[in-house]
Amino acid sequence: MFQRILVPVDGSQRAEQALPVAARIARSSGGSILVLRVVSIPSDFQVYSSVTPAVVQSALEAEQEEAESYLAGLTNQSVLAGLPVHTQVVVGTDQAARSILSTITDQYCDLVVICSHGYTGIKRWALGSVAEKVVHLSPVPVLLLRADHALPLHITAQQQGVIRALVPLDGSAEAKAALEPAAFLVAALAAPGKGALHLMRVVTGTSTHEPDPERQKAALAKVRHYLSTTVEHIRERLIAPSVAPLNLSITWSAVPDGDVATSIVNMAEIGEDTEGAGTPERCDLIAMATHGYSGWQRWVMGSVTERVLHATKVPMLIVRSNVVH
């Protein structure tokens, strides 16, 4: 599924942490990697009106030469050995996100792997949040890594390790758009180990001060039926048909809680007894779909996806849904 993987870097070691992840995916999928560096007019120059165009051009050329040398050094890393790796330097303004988004389209990329800076994810990747803009506007899935929470890429067939993605559902076709990208991602990252999906749905309105036991029971039963039916439909290739051949482990759970975003984060980071497996399981990443090009407008009003993105330390795969009503 992922044949052209874009890795934007900014010269920092944190940003470079995306490379081993991209390499793992590319090896499994038979894909290639494009490492991108955006260079712009040095900020010091922008405060001086007397700086001539010739000086600015000279500075840009120096930045570009340095960036090309830097990227050439990155491609020599052992983790990339044997993979088709390409590099590109884009000379632009200070709108790095815009350059990244243009590259996605121009170079036919189908996945972006980008590393954020800091526990909550997107606060420090070129302040003003380059990563956040890319996540919001990318037409292809974006895997946002956390600098302090690495994916377990050491898995081997002997260790029988599992990489698990949490896919929250809300009953909509749009939310299910994350299923196939998440499945291909965990299969690629886990190879030759085992990939797994855990589907969850939060039963909103059941955590009240005076809960109605019968209403709770009925609501949970309805959601459990929905989740178990969804798993059956995946296995029968009625939905997300490319998932079944991957032979992933698929579990599910219905969570009675009033706060959807908090429940998703807790499920991923802490885990709980899953109804399909019966053992406490944490997840290595969260996969969620957005609704529409502009971002988060319809994934439970109040922006659940964005809240999860800001709150969790777990890597996230953000997928733009193409479902049209």
Written description of the protein model:
By secondary structure, the protein is an alpha/beta fold. It has 2 domains: 4-145, HUPs (Rossmann fold), CATH 3.40.50; 162-321, HUPs (Rossmann fold), CATH 3.40.50. Helix content is 34%, strand content 23%. The protein has helices at 13-16, 18-29, 53-74, 96-106, 130-137, 179-190, 213-235, 260-269, 304-311; strands spanning 4-9, 32-40, 85-92, 111-115, 142-145, 162-168, 194-203, 249-256, 272-273, 280-281, 285-291, 316-321. The strands form 2 sheets. It has a 10-stranded mixed sheet with strand order 3-2-1-4-5-12-11-6-7-8, with helices on both faces. A two-stranded antiparallel ribbon has the order 9-10. It is elongated and about 75 Å long.
Layout of secondary structure:
Elements: E1 4-9, H1 13-16, H2 18-29, E2 32-40, H3 53-74, E3 85-92, H4 96-106, E4 111-115, H5 130-137, E5 142-145, E6 162-168, H6 179-190, E7 194-203, H7 213-235, E8 249-256, H8 260-269, E9 272-273, E10 280-281, E11 285-291, H9 304-311, E12 316-321
Helix pairs in contact: 2-6, 4-5, 8-9
> Separation of termini?
25 Å
CATH class of the largest domain: Alpha Beta
Rg of Cα set: 21 Å
Biggest beta sheet attributes: 10 strands, mixed
Please give the domain count: 2
Number of strands: 12
CATH topology of the largest domain: Rossmann fold
Estimate what percentage of residues fall within beta strands.
15-25%
Give the integer mean of the pLDDT values. 80
Strand order of the largest sheet: 3-2-1-4-5-12-11-6-7-8
